[in-house]
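Q:
Got a chain?
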Amino acid sequence: MTGLSDREVRSGELFERFTDRARRVLVLAQEEARALDHHHIGTEHLLLGMIREGEAVAAKALEGFGVGIEGARRQVVELVGRGETAAQGHLPFTARASRALQLAGQESTDRGLDYIGTEHLLLGLVREGTGTAVQALVKLGADPAGIRQAVDELVARYQAPRT
C-alpha cells in the first residue's frame, strides 16, 4: 500500500479508521488553533491536541520527555505567533498537517493495523519532519528518534501479555 491520498484525507476515508481518542485529538487541535486565532490546523495544533488528550500513547510518550501543554504552547507561539483576528467557520488542515495525517495512516498500515491511534498521529508528525510541531518538540528536548522509540516501547508494554 502506498499510503493515503489527499483525496482520502479530504473525503473522510482516513478519519473512519481513527480511534475515539485520535478523533478527540483533532477536536482539541481545532480548539487550540482557535485559541491562538489561527485560521488553519497545523502540525503544531495536532501536537497540542495530543498533549491535551492526556491519556493515550502519544500523550504518555510526550510526557516521558517532559513535554507538557504550557511549554508546548509557549514554543508554538514563539515559532509562529498568534493570529490577529478570531478564526470563524471551518479550519482547514495545512499541507504539512494533511501529510502528517497521511503518514499516520501509513504508520498504522505498516504495522498491519486497521485503526489509527494517537501513537500513529504522533509518529506521522515525526515522520513528516518539517512542521512546526517537530521544531517545537526539538526545542523542548524531544528528538524524533527518541519519540519513535518511546512510542514503540509504550505500545509493546500495552500489548505484552498480562499474567
About this structure: Residues 1-5 have pLDDT under 50 and may be disordered. The two ends are 36 Å apart (CA to CA).
